[in-house]
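#structure-requests
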Amino acid sequence: MSSLVSIRLGECGFHGELPEDILRLPGLHEIDVNTGFQGKLPESIGNLEFLTDLDLHGLDLSAPIPNSIGNLRKLKNLDLSSNHFDDSIPETIGKLVQLKSWVLSSNHFQGSIPSSIGNLRKLQILDLSFNHLDGPLPSSIGNLRQLQVLDLSPNHLYGSIPISSIGNLSQLQTLDLSSNHLDGSIPSSIGNLRQLQTRYLSCNCFHGSLPSSIGNLRKLQALDLSSNNFSGKIPDSIVNLVSLEQLDLSSNSFRGSIPYLTHPNNITSKFEEHPNSSPGSGLLHLNSLDFSDNLLEGIIKYSVYPPVIGVLISSNEHIPNSACAGNLFRNGLHGYGCVL
């Protein structure tokens, strides 16, 4: 048994305490157990110095994560999701410098995210969603330049997005900070995240106007900024989000007219009115649009398409009832939803 390098126990029907004997096999490289065990993660976990993969998701483990977790210097993948771990995340987590994927979602963690997280420079996936974490986002998060997925929803985080840090995450594809207590404005450096595909910031306390640099996010497919305190005009550069499929700006305080959502390719004079858009740009893949509960006025200007399946613009005081019917959707409005 001393030469055993991998243990996988999935859907085997085992139950009871997680056997500590498993943790006395010093040559282990992989532990993948997702069946029936309960109890706590013992300090002896730190003895597995060759461990690269630790997957204990979906068990019934509780109590804090032991500080000895920091001894697993070769660990690349850590998944403790869907358990009952509580207390704070230990600072020693910052010693896992080889870590690429760190998933602690659906637990009962509390306290702040440790600043030592900034040491995990190889991290690609960070999922701390569905916990009770509070405090601000650590500025050291900007060190995670290989990060592709950042999910911190929903928690009790507060404070502003670190201006000097968020723009460093140039490989980020998924950003979910929804259902927290974050505030402040969205930094213009958000435009540096050119690989971003989904961005969820809904149900927070963000305020101020949207930076025009949002138009740099040409790979963005879903943008949800609903239920915040944003104000000002929707930037014209939003027309450059050529991959966007879902746009939700509802329940804010946006004012003014709605910008062109597709570039009027054949109408030069209208293009000149919108210098932040570029020829060939437009929300041509948009299938869901929600501008409800704002202070917008005018009409939705789709100069040439796209086929939006759902359009919600209700509770905007100055948008006339003809706001949808008077625009040129592909094949008209037949088959599409328009709630006024």
